Amino acid sequence: MLEFSNVKPKEYIDPVTGEAVTLRLLHRITIPSDIRIVNSNGRDLDLIALEEKGSYEELMNLCEANATYLSENRFDITKMNEAIIPL
What we know:
Radius of gyration: 16 Å
Largest sheet: 2 strands, antiparallel
Helix content: 25-40%
Strand content: 15-25%
Strand order of the largest sheet: 1-2
Distance between the termini: 31 Å
Number of helices: 4
Shape: globular
């Protein structure tokens, strides 16, 4: 809890309402030790989840494993060249 108190609050604008919201975001990225990297070819993560893992339920695992790539590309999967698949 002390670690969270050290995070500086940042003001964001809610795109729907236009209101300013102050948040403290603390995100810990955990990259699985068993991974496979695949060429995304502009595919959406839900399609990659279905083709590579066999179900749409794996989408959340793919989102977490690719959080760094997604945030660097402003959550635009078409800009990603590769995706990390947790095994």
